[in-house]
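Quiz preparation item.
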């Protein structure tokens, strides 16, 4: 299966039966490698409510007649706005026609349309997809946490983990996360979108390589075959 990076935390995962878009953020994403109107997907998987993970979710759900898969609160929110949705919660998995999706813990906040009246958006989640014999973990936005060891027990073919610091794990904690997750391949995400989360992807990859991990710092638009 192919994994295409669209910048920030947004990916397209092409399984045999469906095209899965993670954390759609294209229109206001300064490093997006595709325009929202060019995207085709069947499912939209959302890790939490923040705009840099949901910005194009509603538009693409309608444009593509795609189903938004997210925590219960986010699913209800988009359902009320006319999208097809499937609500879940951390620890729960569901067998979709293309494979299994399970939401995991993440340590982060979650809200939408912030400012004075933020909309409660449940808890932030990570997302595990099992399809075509592969297991892929999208960590969403998160701090390092010990329970990543439980996610690692699934046997991860690929992990997408934040390294941007400030809002999420930085490179030091991400290295520890690799010990817990033990992925075959890791793609660093949520960095270099803005100056506040600037990080050196190749430097992180070199440090991780010394510890025995295979890190692929993808450029926006790059495709990784899994
Ligand atoms: Ni966030
Ligand atoms: Mn974020």
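Solution:
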């Amino acid at each position: 299966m192919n994994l295409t990076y669209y910048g920030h935390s947004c990916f397209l995962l092409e399984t045999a039966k469906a095209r899965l878009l993670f954390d759609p953020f294209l229109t206001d994403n300064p490093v997006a490698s595709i325009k929202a109107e060019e995207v085709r997907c069947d499912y939209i998987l959302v890790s939490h409510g923040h705009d840099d993970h949901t910005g194009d979710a509603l538009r693409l759900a309608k444009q593509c007649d795609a189903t938004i898969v997210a925590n219960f609160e986010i699913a209800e929110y988009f359902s009320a706005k006319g999208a097809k949705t499937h609500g879940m919660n951390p620890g729960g998995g569901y067998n979709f026609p293309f494979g299994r999706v399970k939401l995991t813990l993440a340590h982060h906040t979650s809200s939408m349309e912030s400012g004075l009246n933020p909309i409660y958006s449940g808890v932030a989640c990570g997302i595990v997809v099992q399809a075509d014999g592969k297991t892929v973990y999208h960590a969403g936005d998160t701090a390092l946490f010990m329970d990543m060891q439980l996610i690692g027990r699934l046997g991860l073919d690929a992990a997408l983990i934040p390294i941007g610091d400030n809002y999420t794990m930085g490179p030091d904690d991400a290295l520890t996360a690799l010990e817990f997750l033990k992925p075959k391949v890791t793609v660093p995400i949520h960095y270099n979108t803005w100056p506040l989360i600037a990080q050196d992807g190749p430097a992180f990859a070199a440090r991780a390589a010394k510890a025995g991990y295979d890190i692929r710092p993808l450029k926006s638009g790059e495709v990784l075959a899994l």
